[in-house]
Amino acid sequence: MTEINEDIEEFVKFKIGEQEFCIEMSATRELRSWVPTTAIPNSNPNIIGIINLREKILPIVNLAARIGLPLATQNNRQVVIVVQSNGNQFGLLVDAVSDIISASPSEIHPVPKLTPKGNEELFKQVIVQGNDIVCQIILDRLLPEMEENAA
Fold first, then answer.
1. Domains in the chain, ordered, with CATH?
2. What is the pTM for the complete model shown?
């Protein structure tokens, strides 16, 4: 009989450029191929636009822009990860979803403080598995109105 460890956490691992990040599996609603968005004038520059997902209008966050990485040209190979956090549903534009990972408590570590402001602004923790280190993104800090509520 296989023993189930309730302390194991699951994450969706994805790529932005050559770097890998993750989010909690429980917050992930679906994965979608890239579709063009409708831009909203004078909106936050990290929001690419909105899409209609089964009669629900969702903002799409350009995750590379939001976390300060170089922007990739939007293309058909990119993926939108539809997530839900604090009652808000939105999409994250990423280059590729690479894996579903499980992490034990011994593989989860705090994010080191590397800047005076601190990295805890966008990253919750890091998952270390062998030579791989993956930062977990805090979903509540990605949309402008969610960021204000989380502060």
1. 9-150 (2.40.50.180)
2. 0.85
